[in-house]
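Researcher: Good morning. I'm working through a list of sequences from a screen, and I'd like to move beyond sequence-only analysis. For each chain I'm collecting a predicted structure so we can compare shapes side by side. This is the next one on the list. No need for commentary yet; just the structure.
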Amino acid sequence: MRRRVGWRSFATAGLVTAAACASAGGGRGVTPTEGDRFFVAGYHPYWAPNSWETYPFDALSRLYFFEVEAGPDGSLSDLHGWPRQWLPLMSRAQEEGVDVVPTISMHGVEGFQELFASPASVARLVKESLALLLATPGLGGLHLDFEVFSPVSQDVRDGYTAFVTRLRRRMSEADPTYTLSVFALAFDDDDVYAERALAEAADYLVVQGYDFHSAGEANAGPVAALQGWGRLNWGNVVDRFVGFGVPPRKIVMAVPMYGYEWPTETDQPGSATRGQAIEVLLAPPAGVMPELPRAADQAARHGRRRDPESGTPYYAFQDDTGWRQGWFEDAASLRAKYAFVRERGLGGVALFPLAYGDESIWESLRDAFRRPRE
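Model: Good morning. Structure tokens for this chain:
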């Protein structure tokens, strides 16, 4: 989930047994279209190894491990410790009745073009992705996060769609309860993806609901506006996908657990920026990315303001270089987003990443989407 708008077989039978015991949900096939139940997912990032100990498992349907990286030759080139390092996480998820799903990712146009222009590389990626899934009994499926923000050829565009379709078919042949989900850009201004075809091939789409103002933006503003700010809001994003013919219940909105703090010209919303933003985390445990500011702490220190147009909280202060603005989410803005998901009949939400939240964030999630007991 790089942010911008727009495992091989185990060596021993003992490890296979351990993975089976650590399976998360036994392939229940949890999807957003399951009755009137809302789908709540969260991403566990490999760079915050023990943060899962504080996750709100009682509120989750699915936990995405982020990430297993794909190479341009179709190989799974960096597994980030999957699965051996994450057996305790999978065991805890199983105890809580939460599915675990690995995320296969690629970010960057060069690798994307090389991969999906080559039928042989695509075939390898299908084979290795399926092998990764089957090597750990009990996983819920796979999640794809292939993000490109530059134009590609029609053949490459079609190659990605064909890959998703082929992978979904092979997964169904292996186990019909597996699900395949695909991350989708909010706007895709470069027309890299065939969104309607992807939605038809996959079980559901996780739609980008953040970085409407990104780190390198010319103006400061809400990272995930619910409304207002021209087209840069959730309402317009959902309308775009519904306009493609994507059923609302196949749309899961990705929610940021972070924000940005920009150097700005003034303290006013929409002010021009003076340079690159730094990331601010909502309220993570002390050991998670300690070098980055905490939004809740910054707002308490400098005063919490709220943008009347989007309902997004922000803070502003001056240092020796001039004004700085930090935009983020809090319990109130998140509750409004969860209400929007219910009102629009969407499938649910996916929090990125769970490592950056705390109990104040989890309580609003529980209140909106409390998971029924099995």
